[in-house]
Specification:
mainly alpha; 14 helices; 341 residues; 68% helix
Length: 341
């Protein structure tokens, strides 16, 4: 019944961009910032810099980030001729802003060390060895801390890109849906049942959390196929399987409900019912979302801490670091990311 219901990609803006995805990126990015500047700051620095409000739900926004990545990666492959093109495109997209962020964060933490147990043991100043390894983007695999806590998510993201690159190199992308189902089994085994000594599968095979996020990436892949290749019962069943996996690996009802909301939003998106979310502020935040994600946390914590010392109000402690983070992210996006890509 679904075979002939292929939904065309939108043509309603000059750059043929999926503005709804840009808006969803913006919503995710600003939500992560709100979480770190309100709820998580009090965990890292208890009793200091009381925020004007609490926004504690954002860890689940990573689900939305991953769904978007899974969707967009196949869109990228449609425009890519050779594996080297894919590598260059992903590298130019990720690394220049990442390098700028590592240099900026390390410099500021050297000048204004954060005395905390997070993200580095004991102190927020950065050891040279940690800094140098972070320049490679391989710190998760080499057993080093991130210079900023938010950088942890690059490990599963890069791992996902490597998986897609392997399929693309051997011209097997058409099998990604079928093989992806096997990945769902590994997600459940990794979370619930299988261990090798003290190491779970994900850490034993590759020191990233790809198996903690595969069902999100895979759901994004399935949504892309639904939108561009047509609706089939197998693709809908695959998405149902992703939701079942979330229930099997998580006992947190909020996490399960958030994933359900993410799936619903993507169903609305592929059927053209999410255009209302494409508002200019969210689209702008989506444009700068990668840079904003990279640089907001520790830089914001430094500013909040200094504003707290001089006795500013909670709203000032929130608004100033938010404005600074958005300003830096905007500069990085338009001066580094866009020229590089």
């Amino acid at each position: 019944m679904f075979q002939n219901s292929c939904i065309p990609m939108p043509k309603n803006n000059p750059a043929n961009r999926l503005l709804e995805l840009d808006a969803l990126r913006g919503l995710s990015a600003i939500s992560v910032l709100l979480f770190h500047y309100t709820h998580f700051y009090g965990i890292v620095f208890p009793g200091r810099g009381t925020p004007p409000f609490q926004f504690p739900w954002v860890p689940y926004r990573i689900q939305l980030f991953s769904l978007i990545s899974g969707f967009v990666i196949l869109l990228v492959l449609e425009k890519t001729e050779k594996p080297l093109d894919f590598i260059v495109a992903r590298f130019s997209r990720l690394y220049p802003c990442y390098l700028a962020a590592v240099l900026l964060i390390t410099g500021l933490l050297t000048l204004f060390p954060l005395i905390t147990q997070y993200p580095l043991p004991g102190r927020g100043s950065i050891p040279w060895s940690t800094f140098l390894v972070n320049l490679t983007m391989l710190q998760s695999w080499l057993g080093y801390a991130d210079v900023d806590g938010v950088l942890w998510f690059l490990a599963p993201e890069i791992s996902f890109y490597l998986i897609i690159l392997i399929f693309f190199t051997f011209k097997k992308v058409k099998y990604i849906e079928s093989v992806g189902l096997l990945g769902l089994i590994l997600v459940v085994l990794n979370a619930r049942y299988v261990s090798v000594g003290p190491f779970k599968i994900s850490n034993f095979i590759i020191n990233s959390k790809i198996l903690c996020f595969w069902h999100y990436f895979y759901a994004g892949i399935l949504f892309y196929q639904l939108k561009t290749k047509g609706e089939t019962w197998r693709r809908h069943a695959g998405l149902a399987a992703c939701f079942v996996v979330q229930n099997l690996i998580s006992d947190n009802i909020i996490s399960i409900l958030c994933f359900a909301v993410c799936l619903l939003m993507f169903y609305l998106f592929i059927h053209g019912q999410l255009s209302w979310i494409a508002q200019k502020p969210l689209i702008f935040l989506g444009t700068i979302s990668y840079s904003l994600y990279l640089i907001h946390q520790n830089i914001g914590y430094i500013i909040i801490g200094h504003l707290d010392k001089i006795g500013t109000s909670p709203w000032i402690r929130f608004l100033i670091p938010t404005a600074v983070a958005i300003g830096i992210a905007t500069a990085m996006t338009y001066l580094i990311e866009k020229p590089a890509t």
